[in-house]
Amino acid sequence: MSITRVKFCGMTRASDVEAAVEIGANAVGFVCHPPSARYAAPAALKDLARRLPPFVTPVLLFVNASSENIERALDAVPNALLQFHGDETPAQCTRFERPYLRAIRMFDEVDLLDCERAFASSIGLLADTPSEGYGGSGRGFDWSRLPSASVRVKPLVLAGGLTAANVGAAVGAVQPFAVDVSSGIEESPGKKSIEKMQRFIAAVRAADLALEPR
Description:
Layout: E1 5-8, H1 14-23, E2 27-31, H2 42-49, E3 57-62, H3 67-76, E4 81-84, H4 90-94, E5 100-105, H5 112-118, E6 124-128, E7 156-158, H6 167-174, E8 178-181, E9 186-188, E10 191-192, H7 194-211
Parallel strand pairs: 1-2, 1-8, 2-3, 3-4, 4-5, 5-6, 6-7, 7-8
Antiparallel strand pairs: 9-10
């Protein structure tokens, strides 16, 4: 069975990190952007990330961050994958010589295949809902605007307004490499719901099963 990876993002509490691991998340994201309600300061990152076992990937999310701030976060979580959500150029994304994901806000004029070529150095692209800020809107976008899996070159992470109620349809329609959720598994910003995390994972696995050839 093809497995869609799951990333739970915006973790701020150690108990939520531990629950995410127990429930079956493949990656756990920490927001390193101070204006965010889900901001995890460098002083907290080390304690949060140490609760992740091998093969569960820590992801550090940045928005137009300075090199100093990124280095400080990497000091706390040296094995992290980087995720860029701002206006970073390819050169700015590669300056740390680390694997990175590039978030793409899916405005009407955006062509994901063009973005694949522009960010050829990335390990994948994350398609998100356009908003006035930089992600975290809790709203979805029209998945039909994404190129089909047969023509995509890079792994695609699908984000934007996903919940247990719609992620199955998203997996079926887009067939992404992974799905990324934050507000859709929360009680309030930064505080996750174990029940919502469980339901989300269950919905993804059911969608994976439905995609298997009969």
